[in-house]
Amino acid sequence: MVELSTDLSPYEAVQYFFHDVADQLGIDDQTRAVLNGTYREIRVQLPVRRDDGGLETYYGYRVQHNGARGPYKGGVRFHPTADLDEVRALASLMTWKTALVDVPFGGAKGGVQVDPSTLSRAEHERLTRRYMSQVSYIIGKKRDIMAPDMNTNAQTMAWMMDAWGRAHGHEPAIVTGKPVPLGGSKGREAATGRGTVMVLDEAAKQHDWTPEDLTVAIQGYGNVGSWTARLAAERGYRVLAVSDVDGAIHAPDGISTDMLDKHVKEAGTVAGFEGAEDIEGDALLELDVDVLIPAALGEVINHTNADEIRARMIIEAANNPVTPVADRILTDSGVIVIPDILANAGGVTVSYFEWTQNIQEFQWSEEEVNEQLSRYMRTAYRKVRERAEDLETTMRRAAFAIGISEVAEVARLRGYV
Q1: Rounded to an integer, what distance in angstroms lies between the CA atom of residue 339 and that of residue 323?
Q2: Largest Cα–Cα distance of the chain, in whole Å?
Q3: Which residues share a beta bridge with 144?
Q4: What is the spatial distance between Cα 167 and Cα 135, in angstroms, rounded to a whole number?
Q5: Which residues carry out catalysis?
Q6: CA count, 13 A, side-chain hemisphere, 239
Q7: Residue 113 predicted with pLDDT over 90
Q8: Cα–Cα dist 161/173, whole Å
Q9: Cα-trace Rg, the chain
Q10: Extended beta strands in 301-412, E state
């Protein structure tokens, strides 16, 4: 068990949410030990030759949390904080996420502790290939399928696929999130942001809100945040503020995402956009908006700022952005929190579609991908909403209850527990 505290590590925070719901479900200690623990963890040394001839050594991780429902599935992030504890936490979340949206995967995650901004393109490629080489013996299209995450993208996946293929033969299904010409799925790049907006749509319907009446702030303008902003604006939501690692902007009358995208392409940051005023990055979280969407790092909403949140609803497009203590404060304040295992599940859902297409050697149209994504995401939202209403509990507890119950049932059927 994990006690509620302000200094929990990322993995301890996920454990807290797990045990909180396991208590309500009446899951016995033996089953908890299997479901909450990780099946396999590896740490690999990654010596990489720099462009100047020097040798730099990095460390990478792959954690396979639970594979009762199918092959392990999870992204790989390149970030200075991507240590074993963080990767464990993210692998665990993937287990409950895939079960919640009912795709036939288990949960895994990978990470390399590196600041990617210090790498040239060639160095990034060498590091990626070395990482795949070091973890390849536990990877496979029916064993563990990797995907992009923070600071990795379709090109990273192309390098990984090629590194695998040189040793084992051409196998597109070994990773998802690839470029379309290499077997990637149409619609995959936008999938996580699109799924987030679908969840926003369902939440708005539930509470009898219309898009035109809702104001939105989005922390993070990478792949997930930028697609969330574009698609939300297309749906009629008023995006008032966005941020990235270099700054934040706020426009009380709304931001033109088309104009912002042009600015970001030229300047490399949202900061300095003429259609809005620059603000402090942390100030974005405390703006008076209807919906706050954290789409960057974890633990950005915590005990130090949870009392300052003025949004009516938080939709967790990032992984683990709200700590357990902050979650308690927000719930007590009446703030609705849509958890990450539901809100950002669009990425793994379309990764499932990509994996399926690769195995079938047949490509779907983007319209088909988006139609199926809508079906999966909206069905998952409605299941969580109904569970929350039936049990008179939060959306987070309801989502975890569905995911944990599904995995526990399959584990029993397979004889794991």
Answers
A1: 11
A2: 62
A3: 72, 140
A4: 13
A5: 109
A6: 31
A7: yes
A8: 9
A9: 20
A10: 313-315, 336-338
